[in-house]
Amino acid sequence: MATPVSFVGNRLIAAIDAPDRVEAERMIARLGDVPSWIKIGLELFCAEGPSIVSAHVGRGYSIMLDLKFHDIPETVARATARVASLGAGLITVHADGGRAMLEAAVKAAGTKTRVLAVTVLTSLDDADLATIGAIGPVGELVKQRAQLAIAAGCAGVVASPHEVAAIRAFAPRDFLIVTP
Length: 180
Fold this sequence. Notes:
The chain has helices at residues 21-31, 42-48, 51-58, 73-84, 99-109, 126-131, 138-152, 164-168; strands spanning 13-16, 37-41, 62-69, 90-94, 114-118, 156-158, 176-178. By secondary structure, it is of the alpha/beta class. The protein has one domain (13-178): Aldolase class I (TIM Barrel, Alpha-Beta Barrel). It has a seven-stranded parallel beta sheet with strand order 1-2-3-4-5-6-7. Helix 4 packs parallel to helix 5 and helix 5 crosses helix 7 (138-152).
């Protein structure tokens, strides 16, 4: 059974979208004791490697590792297991990777790391989706992918604040909806 994600104190996840460790530390210092969760994204992770996660877990932060995995199920499972071993509490994968990929990530994450499925990147609109062959407006695609994430056992989704009410209408009560 998976351990539930705990948001003791507040529900804020501070996005540490920094190019390197020095800037990340400046951002975290300015935040003080406000967040108990910090998000480490692709740029910072690529610049600093896994030690950036381990260092902040060691300082008592809960980590959302936002790498948006999207590959064949076995590759995503192996990558998920690796980042879960670093102590990240939440990790992201793309929902459009399909049910098998999502299920593989959930299984590989183990009991302490929760998987969030990214529904649709917030930078995309209906016209962008049409150019890549996605059918339907953004809102409908977000709902479809959130339903897929639920079916695959994901702990939640990352979605636009505009989509929260629509997802909450059908999602289980403990399903996480993280918004940028």
